[in-house]
Specification:
Rossmann fold, 2 domains, 8-stranded mixed beta sheet, 14 helices, about 35% helix
Length: about 400
């Protein structure tokens, strides 16, 4: 069974639907918060007749969401924001009507709509009259959502609010959280060691000038955050960027390509996966000046450049090569052909190609990527870097499960 620490730093949507068991949801919200989770309560209109939204706001510290079209949400699309935000969706209590809604795929309020829009793990805690629970239609609805991967927690047996006795009571909060933990599986990258580079490198010309590129590091940091969410132990080596370190990720800051190369080599032995997302400068000045060069200096007019180490290729040829070595290819033309050439030449397991013509992608929150390995190509156009990171790591998880299949350098 997973440890209660699993909830620490997790973002949980607690859906509350209209039943007398709503009072138990208050204790669930409180307990999840004490375990370190950030809890966002989403209530149906019927639920507000049993418990005031203000109660949940006081328990979680966050305003309760009830409206499908929220004028205060980004572009008024609150369900999409929440769907992307959540690490887990738990509906407790889940009424017979809500079960029917989920099973049918309807999306007629905020809770059912974000349920459809989210790819996060999902669980329900049924709560209803014993006769309603025993009805074959309810059984069918439970089977349908379980087949889709939803965890059904409970119900319990006992005396019900209506006076009936039998199955249908919602689990008590302690038992519900324990049941939830038994269903939580380790992420597909649980315990895997991922070494990842991100951002640009700065190659000094003199104490005030340097050669660099337009990389913001956002894609690499999104990959680090997603890998950690999937259970990996993540080591991030970053060039100069203005980004916060993802929670739980160990970060080392470097400036130059040579420093990044050295940091990678010092850590490569322990890695299961290496992802070279950094935009490493291909060249550097042969002799950086010790003092600021003047405009009239011949050194500025005729910079002598030398080649930087190819970090991804050196990892692919390392005696302690990770199981997967992944590169990035930023191209302005004939993107897939150039990327496949790098995949083969550098003996990589996978390469992520970006079309950066016209400066697109750099510094932005959206991207377009192609995930390319020896046998397949997947295109993802106009997506967030967070969603691209999810697609990339989902693909790498599959490759990892298939075992070594390294390319051959030519």
């Amino acid at each position: 069974m997973a440890h209660p620490d699993w909830f620490d730093q997790k973002r949980i949507i607690l859906g509350v639907t209209g039943g007398i068991a709503c009072y138990k949801a208050c204790e669930i919200a409180r307990q999840l918060g004490r375990l370190g989770a950030t809890v966002q309560v989403v209530m149906t209109e019927a639920a507000t007749a049993f418990v005031s939204p203000l109660t949940f706001q006081a328990l979680t510290g966050h305003p309760v969401r009830t409206s499908l079209l929220d004028a205060n949400a980004e572009a008024g699309m609150g369900h999409i924001e929440l769907a992307r935000w959540a690490d887990l969706i738990l509906i407790a209590p889940c009424t017979a009507n809500t079960l029917a809604t989920l099973a049918s795929g309807r999306a007629d309020d905020l809770l059912s709509t974000l349920w459809l829009a989210s790819t996060a793990p999902k669980a329900v805690a049924p709560a209803m009259n014993q006769a309603m629970w025993a009805d074959p239609t309810t059984t069918q609805h439970c089977q349908q959502i379980e087949a889709q991967g939803t965890w059904v927690l409970g119900p319990d047996a006992g005396v019900q609010a209506c006076g009936d006795v039998g199955l249908g009571r919602m689990l008590e909060p302690d038992a519900l959280i324990e049941s939830l933990l038994t269903h939580i599986q380790s992420g597909p990258l649980d315990g895997r060691q991922i070494l990842l580079t991100a951002g640009p490198t700065h190659e000094p010309i003199d104490p005030v000038r340097y050669l660099a590129n337009r990389s913001s590091g956002k894609m690499g940091f999104a990959l680090a955050a997603e890998a950690k969410r999937l259970g990996a132990v993540v080591e991030l080596i970053s060039g100069p960027v203005h980004l916060e370190t993802p929670h739980g990720v160990r970060r080392t800051d470097v400036e130059t390509a040579e420093q990044m190369h050295q940091a990678v080599l010092e850590r490569i032995v322990a890695a299961d996966i290496f992802i070279g997302a950094a935009a490493v400068s291909d060249m550097r000045p042969a002799q950086p000046a010790r003092h600021k060069l003047k405009k009239q200096s011949d050194h500025l007019n005729h910079l002598e450049l030398v080649e930087n180490p190819d970090i991804v290729q050196s990892v692919a040829s390392h005696p302690h090569r990770p199981q997967l070595v992944v590169g990035f290819a930023a191209e302005t033309d004939d993107v897939e052909r150039h990327a496949r050439s790098k995949l083969t030449h550098k003996a990589l397991d996978c390469i992520i190609a970006n079309d950066v013509s016209g400066g697109q992608v750099f510094g932005r929150d959206i991207t377009a990527v192609s995930i390319i390995d020896a046998h397949t190509t997947q295109h993802f156009s106009t997506t967030t870097k967070e969603d691209a990171a999810k697609a990339i790591l989902a693909h790498l998880s599959v490759l990892l499960s298939q075992g070594p299949s390294h390319g051959t350098a030519i």
